[in-house]
Amino acid sequence: MKMMKLNKLYIFKIVSVGLLATSLSCSDDYLIDQKYDGLTSDIVYSDPTTAQATVTSIYDALQMDIVEGNMKGMLYPNTYSTLDFYNIGSDTFFNTYEVPTDFDGLNQLWIKMYSGIVSANNAIPNIQNMIEAGTIEEELGNRLIGESYALRGIYFSILASNFGGVPLVTGITTTSEESLYTPRSTQEETFQQVVSDLEAAVELLPWSYTSDNVGRVTRGAAEAYLGNAYMWLGDYNSAIAAYESLDGHYTLEPDYLNIHDYDNRNGMESIFEIQMFSASGAANWGGNDDNMNFFQWFTMPLEIQTYGGYTVPTAQFFNSFEAGDVRRDATLIGPDMEHPDSDINISDYPMVQSNYGGINTCGTAAAPWNPEGRSGYYLLKFWRNPLVDASQGNIYSDQNLILLRYAEVLLSLAEAHYRVGNTATAESYLMQVRNRAGLTTLPTGDLLDGILEEYRHELGGEFSTWWLLRRSGDHENYIYDHFGITIPAGKDIMPIPQQQMDANPNLVQNPNY
């Protein structure tokens, strides 16, 4: 990503290296980047096309360096911290809740989120000035401002979900030295900022876009993340209002397996997802760009590829699904099981043909695929691209990454109604999700425990499970009850990256790190 100066050079020392106020890219189709050099702020904010490009650049915080930021900064905490998954490589510390302060995945996420935030900070007032000057149509300008507010709110939400309170940087430029060393706000203050941003976005965003803009943040995404922020703040009635506004705009996929289907990008259940735009479906090492990911390579069996397969589900997770829950076989695969996606035949992989006689199962009960301490079970949600064949060096996929979907909203509605004493309504929302999973009765025992179990089984291996457990406040009991493990004091939350601590002396580390 090439960077340029739009107004004054705005270097914010919240990251270990300075960030320019914005980076410029343009979208002709979806959110595919095109680069523009040599543009001044007078040019950028006098033309609707380049103004749209500045807003498109805010999305780059989710697309650049998909490995470190999105995988290690978001997916790792939400899979490994639940103890339903573990890392077969060097990042095993998540399972002991001893994440080092110099773990670069968290640092890269911090840098990416703030790069998007400062880009949004720059766009909001400048596009407002364009509206007032008549250089952009009011409807388009307001939509772009809405996107900027929504993305800033989402990025602050991601940061607060991982780290707790973070520095609230919302200004466009400054000459004040003190502002370069912004201290942390509290977690509550951070989510209050998220509420403010998303409430503003809701008033400006459409529910849907034309086909050439699919993938941009919608009012539905803003309402859903707004509901999440209210949940973090304990304002459950406001959360209910935000979540219930999505009724009629989204619906559950009838078939759970179809949610992550390679050909089902931006499906009926998807609320917000990271867009991938590779011309082909696979590329080898070094052939990737910021429009591809290698999540599939991280979850496929080693027997299919020459290396990789670092994210491993546990046998305990596999066995935790209720009898008849269709989500198990759409989420995990193990010995004697065929891949449930008809587009993927395990027998087609060259290494399986050469080494395992062309069997069409993920190993067998007699000879499970469990080398190097693996469990023999594998995550299917990212293993959906038939073009990815790691044994041939093709490891990158253009499968989109779903950050938020409607089933999560329904489960959050169940939790919110439970919190305010609407037990029957909570059960109704819970059963919408369970019915789709093939389950016809309420879970036994405490209803909140049942909701937490639904988060686990509905969203396992995705981008929010641990944050939802932590948000509930019952996560420490959950881990002890399920695994007999006591989370060390303060270690349920990620450490502030040491690089940021070194760059900003006013940052205070989370306790016990």
TrEMBL record:
InterPro entries given in the database record: SusD-like_N, SusD_RagB_dom, TPR-like_helical_dom_sf
Family: Belongs to the SusD family.
Stretches assigned to the RagB/SusD domain: 314-513
Keywords attached to this entry: Cell outer membrane, Membrane, Signal
Signal peptide as annotated in the record: 1-27
Organism: Neptunitalea lumnitzerae
Name this polypeptide is given: Membrane protein
Coiled coil: none
Main localization of the protein described in the UniProt heading: membrane
Record-annotated SusD-like N-terminal domain positions: 96-230
Localisation: Cell outer membrane
Gene3D superfamilies xrefs: 1.25.40.390
